[in-house]
């Protein structure tokens, strides 16, 4: 037999490289892509790019020079391991709101590493989100119980931004006319800095005051923030300060440690109006600073002032208990510049983990962990005192502040050399914080570092009283709901979590074609390093010598993102897209101030923009002026020029999303940017739709001065049921000095690098894709959207397109005429898609009465065709309603979604058959084995808003 000719077989180097990762990430196989392109009338992705993208924005030469050639999964993980190995994980006893914790393996495996949880989207379709909603309701109940305040939200970004949200909530909710907000000097320093950043643009006068004497400063104020315990560890009764504030007409928020509240009287019982904090120590890894779920709880009268998301109890069409997001009028896409917050992404996955931690341990387990943590601190302090070290506070929970005049650096260095990280407070003071992972061996090491000898820990324990004030001992019960008692064995917990995930529809079971949200593949290889201890167990304020690997990863990622977007620099600090928007607008405002143009405060925003744009502009101290859009969905250039002429000297910025929120590559974008620049303004290009640009066009090259990016969209960090997100801000050279935390502009999140615990995901994605892979992904996403638009055009009009009839990476299907003719609404279509086992597209945004579809590059042709077939089937049912075969108020669409229970009921008095309700496409292959049974029928949101219940109801509610 003759050998195979060289030209007929791959080289050894090609075989060694294996299948490129891009071939795994991009869904359509070559033959499928060819069929899609043929339907579009083009023969290649390059030809599609020539047709769909305006030449004025396209990069004709490859960009992203700092991004290296792609590698395979094994090589990427080896490189990532090399970076991880450059980190040193010491025992974290630094404190400052971040503590060592143990993530139970059952939670790590069944939630954090489970795509059923981490690939889910925000529960805007509650009928197929009952699982994560139930978990979030447990989170709210946990927070409410522990803080003693009846209403808690479904999680915020971090403790510092939660404090900022509480500050603005108290201002809205109170009656005081003063602009002064008093902050306890014993507050976490990172919280104080974020408060400064948030307060300045809003005209809030921040005063940091020493309240240890028990008195508020003289004068009026609208609010007060107290810390319980304080950053120094001190525990003091805040009730007198709360009473003083109330006497002056001010409201009070208390920053509280949830674990400490298992032993201490909760803030609500002490008179506080709100409580804020972080749930990190409830089983959520440190992650070098995040992501972690923060909390904010309030009294009942302030419930409607809560920012972000609130899970509430309602009922479905059959009257059964059901959950949904409550008070949706607070959401930014509805209230826009009247929104009370720009919060969009939350920290849902981390909130779920924290709630599961409370379920896993129950009230007794949490109390035991708190007692262990406190006893370690009490014995630690006793040993230091025995060794001649002065302890600053007699009352504390987990943090001991020790005075060592002139020796702080030596003590910290000695502990570090022995593998323990302490906090240097000053040259004379050292802080030591204990946690659930602290051991007696750690105490001995700390005693030695202080030069306190080697006392007998057992003897100290037996002879040392607790260091918590007896008058603050908690007497009220908490976590009494059965949820926190019935799932204590691992078997029970595992089955509870499986039941919840089965009540959801995530990306592991179906495409989620949500326009503007980019629900694409979150590859397992990208996720793998998230749980590596060298990344997950790193304290955000660890010494720089311990964090070289993570800082190099962050630097590389910032450089790659800057090159890909055409900007000079990137900051990864913003820990959500909304915070990236805010940071970008702060940079613009600071730039104008530096040029003596503080009067520039008008922000132009197209009518089609995402609602967070307007809310962020208001938070940044700007005045929003809306610019109209034309008949094609583009920015109306005439209206833009008129608004520029009207506000010229006061023009600060234009915020524009590109491609537009309407899913169109606007051909005149350079003209838009040029008009703003000519008037002295800056251009903010919202990066929400960057998945249509990476590798083919760069916002910083076609007119943008600043953009935020969504790593949880374009760069593969999973949405996790509504978070975590990361929203880096990218700026042109002249705005680099105004990036957050670099001097001129303060930090926008608590940790120096925001949420670095999930940054290995985006690093891995870019490292494996390379520039060619990214370009291929972008154009495949554009091909998929155009294919959907082409296939559905005769059934549902596509509302907007470019001059050549192409859309970008998403398309808007217009149902308004259908609704007017038949009464069938976008809600009906969305709920009927559930019967098909498919998540609905984005409803009524950016245009009411429409569906915005974004298939992404990760879905293969059979899945896209499954969605297309479902939409065509639904159109057929709409036609039967229009023909009078079914009444407008009783048809398969209005009755959707259909549960197994409603179909099995003896009573069936609908004019359409059960079989059609259950299996809309009948015997179509693959229908029965892909069937999703929703746990509830259509939910009555209005009922829940009128009867607001935001914590776990009693078991009778399930009867």
From TrEMBL:
Residue positions, PTM N6-(pyridoxal phosphate)lysine: 713
Record has Transmembrane helix as a keyword: no
Lineage: superkingdom: Bacteria
GO CC annotations, alphabetized: cytosol; glycine cleavage complex
Record keywords: Oxidoreductase, Pyridoxal phosphate
Enzymatic reactions: N(6)-[(R)-lipoyl]-L-lysyl-[glycine-cleavage complex H protein] + glycine + H(+) = N(6)-[(R)-S(8)-aminomethyldihydrolipoyl]-L-lysyl-[glycine-cleavage complex H protein] + CO2
GO biological process, one term: glycine decarboxylation via glycine cleavage system
Annotated ranges, domain Glycine dehydrogenase C-terminal: 777-898
Keyword Cell membrane among record annotations: no
EC code: 1.4.4.2
Names of required cofactors: pyridoxal 5'-phosphate
Annotated InterPro entries: GcvP, GDC-P_C, GDC-P_N, GDC_P, PyrdxlP-dep_Trfase, PyrdxlP-dep_Trfase_major, PyrdxlP-dep_Trfase_small
Domain Glycine cleavage system P-protein N-terminal: 23-450, 460-742
GO molecular function: glycine binding; glycine dehydrogenase (decarboxylating) activity; pyridoxal phosphate binding
Family per similarity comment: Belongs to the GcvP family.
Family matches, as NCBIfam families: gcvP (TIGR00461)
Subunit record text: The glycine cleavage system is composed of four proteins: P, T, L and H.
Record function comment: The glycine cleavage system catalyzes the degradation of glycine. The P protein binds the alpha-amino group of glycine through its pyridoxal phosphate cofactor; CO(2) is released and the remaining methylamine moiety is then transferred to the lipoamide cofactor of the H protein.
HAMAP family for the chain: GcvP
Protein name (record): Glycine dehydrogenase (decarboxylating)
Lineage, top ranks: Bacteria, Bacillati, Actinomycetota, Actinomycetes, Pseudonocardiales
Gene name of the record: gcvP
């Amino acid at each position: 037999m003759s050998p195979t000719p060289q030209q007929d077989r791959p080289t050894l180097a090609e075989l060694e490289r294996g299948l490129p990762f891009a071939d795994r990430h991009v869904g359509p196989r070559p033959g499928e892509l060819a069929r899609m392109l043929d339907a579009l009338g083009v023969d290649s992705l390059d030809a599609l790019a020539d047709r769909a993208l305006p030449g004025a924005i396209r990069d004709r030469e490859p960009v992203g020079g700092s991004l290296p050639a792609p590698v395979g999964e094994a090589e990427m993980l080896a490189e990532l391991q090399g970076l991880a190995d450059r980190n040193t994980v010491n025992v974290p006893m630094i404190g400052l709101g971040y503590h060592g914790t143990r993530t139970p393996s059952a939670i790590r495996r069944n939630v954090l590493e489970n795509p059923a949880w981490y690939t889910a989207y925000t529960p805007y379709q509650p009928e197929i989100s009952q699982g994560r909603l139930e978990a979030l309701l447990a989170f709210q109940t946990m927070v409410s119980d522990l803080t003693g305040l009846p209403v808690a939200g479904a999680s915020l970004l971090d403790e510092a931004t939660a404090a900022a949200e509480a500050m603005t909530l108290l201002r809205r909710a109170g009656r005081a006319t003063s602009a002064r907000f008093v902050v306890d000097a014993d507050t976490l320093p990172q919280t104080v800095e974020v408060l400064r950043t948030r307060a300045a643009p809003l005209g809030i006068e921040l005063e940091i005051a020493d309240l240890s004497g028990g008195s508020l400063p003289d004068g009026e104020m609208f609010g007060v923030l107290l810390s319980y315990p304080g950053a120094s560890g001190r525990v003091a009764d805040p009730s007198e300060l709360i009473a003083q504030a109330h006497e002056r007409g001010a409201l009070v928020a208390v920053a509280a440690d949830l674990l400490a509240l298992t032993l201490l009287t909760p803030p609500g019982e002490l008179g506080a109006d709100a409580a804020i904090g972080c749930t990190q120590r409830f089983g959520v890894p440190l992650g070098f600073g995040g992501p972690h779920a923060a909390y904010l709880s309030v009294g009942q009268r302030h419930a409607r002032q809560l920012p972000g998301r609130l899970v509430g109890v309602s009922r479905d069409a059959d009257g059964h208990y059901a959950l949904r997001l409550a008070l949706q009028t607070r959401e930014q896409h509805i209230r826009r510049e009247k929104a009370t917050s720009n919060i969009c992404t939350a920290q849902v996955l981390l909130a779920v983990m924290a709630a599961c931690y409370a379920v896993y341990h129950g009230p007794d387990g949490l109390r035991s962990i708190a007692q262990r943590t406190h006893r370690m601190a009490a014995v630690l302090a006793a040993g230091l005192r025995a060794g001649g070290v002065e302890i600053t506070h007699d009352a504390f929970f987990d943090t001991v502040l020790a005075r060592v005049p002139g020796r702080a650096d030596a003590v910290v260095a000695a502990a570090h050399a022995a593998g323990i990280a302490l906090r240097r407070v000053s040259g004379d003071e050292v802080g030591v914080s204990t946690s659930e992972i602290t051991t007696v061996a750690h105490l001995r090491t700390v005693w030695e570092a202080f030069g306190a000898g080697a006392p007998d820990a057992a003897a100290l324990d037996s002879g040392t009283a607790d260091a918590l004030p007896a008058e603050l001992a908690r007497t009220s019960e908490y976590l009494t709901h059965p949820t926190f008692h019935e799932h204590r064995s691992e078997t029970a917990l595992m089955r509870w979590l499986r039941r919840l995930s089965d009540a959801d529809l995530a990306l592991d079971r179906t495409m989620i074609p949500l326009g503007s949200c980019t629900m694409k593949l979150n590859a397992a290889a990208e996720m793998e390093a998230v749980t590596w201890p060298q990344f997950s167990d790193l304290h955000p304020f660890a010494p720089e010598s311990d964090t070289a690997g993570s800082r190099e990863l962050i630097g590389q990622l910032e450089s790659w993102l800057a090159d890909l977007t055409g900007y000079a620099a990137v900051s990864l600090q913003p820990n959500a897209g909304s915070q990236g928007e805010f940071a970008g607008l702060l940079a613009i405002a600071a730039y104008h101030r530096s040029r003596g143009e503080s009067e520039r405060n008008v922000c132009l925003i197209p009518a089609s923009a995402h609602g967070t744009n307007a809310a962020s502009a208001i938070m940044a101290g700007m005045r929003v002026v809306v610019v109209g859009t034309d008949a094609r969905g583009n920015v109306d250039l005439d209206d833009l020029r008129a608004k520029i002429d009207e506000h010229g000297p006061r023009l600060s910025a234009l915020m524009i999303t590109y491609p537009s929120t309407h899913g169109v590559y606007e051909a005149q974008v350079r003209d838009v940017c040029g008009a703003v620049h000519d008037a002295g303004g800056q251009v903010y290009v919202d990066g929400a739709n960057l998945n249509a640009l990476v590798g083919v066009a760069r916002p910083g090259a076609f007119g943008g001065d600043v953009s935020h990016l969504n790593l949880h969209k374009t760069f593969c960090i999973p949405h996790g049921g509504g978070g975590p997100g990361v929203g880096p801000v990218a700026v042109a050279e002249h705005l680099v000095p105004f990036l957050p935390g670099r001097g001129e502009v303060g930090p926008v999140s608590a940790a120096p690098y925001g949420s670095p615990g999930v940054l290995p995901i985006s690093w891995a994605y870019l490292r494996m894709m390379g520039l060619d892979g990214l370009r291929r992904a972008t154009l495949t996403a554009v091909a998929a959207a155009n294919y959907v638009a082409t296939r559905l055009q005769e059934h549902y009009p596509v509302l907007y397109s470019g001059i050549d009839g192409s859309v970008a990476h998403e398309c808007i299907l217009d149902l308004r005429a259908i609704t007017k003719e038949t009464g069938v609404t976008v809600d009906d279509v969305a709920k009927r898609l559930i019967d098909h086992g498919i998540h609905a597209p984005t409803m009524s945004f950016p245009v009411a009465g429409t569906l915005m579809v974004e298939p992404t590059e990760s879905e293969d042709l059979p899945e896209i065709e499954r969605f297309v077939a479902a939409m065509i089937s639904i159109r057929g049912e709409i036609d039967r309603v229009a023909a009078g075969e079914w009444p407008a108020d009783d048809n398969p669409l209005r009755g959707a979604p259909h549960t197994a229970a409603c179909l099995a009921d003896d009573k069936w008095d609908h004019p359409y058959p059960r079989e059609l309700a259950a299996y809309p496409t009948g015997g179509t292959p693959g229908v029965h084995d892909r069937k999703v049974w929703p746990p509830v029928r259509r939910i009555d949101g209005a009922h829940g808003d009128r009867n607001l219940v935001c914590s776990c109801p009693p078991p009778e509610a399930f009867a």
